[in-house]
Amino acid sequence: MSKLPTDEEKRDYWSHSIRWVFIFLTIWFIASFGCGILFRTWLDENFPKIGNAPFGFWMAQQGSIIVFILILIAYSKVMGRLEKQLER
Amino acid sequence: MSQNAWNLLFIGLSFAAYIFIAVRSRAGSTKEYYTAGGGISPVTNGMATAADWMSAATFISMAGSLSISGYDGSRFLMGWTGGFVLLTILMVPFLRKFGKATVPDFVGDRYYSQAARLVAVICAIFICLTYIMGQMRGVGIVFAQLFGIEIWLGVVIGGAIVFFYAGLGGMKGITYTQVAQYIVMAFAYTIPAIFIAITLTGNVIPQLGFIGDYKGGEGAVPFLDKLNNINTELGFAEYTSGSLSTIDMFCITAALMCGTAGLPHVIVRFFTVKDVKAVRKSAYWTLSFIAVIYLTAPTVGSFARVNLIENLHDTTYAKAPQWMKDFETTGQLAWVDKNGDGKIQYFGKGKSDSKKDDAVFAGSTPSFDSSTARGAYGQRLLKNDIITNNPNELWFGEDMMVMASPYMGKTPAWVIGLLMAGCIAAALSTAAGLLLVLSTAISHDLMKKIIKPELSDREEIKWARIASFGALVVGCFFAINPPSAFVAKTVAFAFGLAASSFFPTLLMGIFSKRINKYGGISGMICGISFTLLYIIYFQFGLPGLGKGTSAQYLFGISPEGIGTVGMLLNFAVSFIVSHFTPPTPQHIKDLVESIRYPSAALGESDSAPVDH
Question: The pTM is what?
Answer without folding.
Answer: 0.84
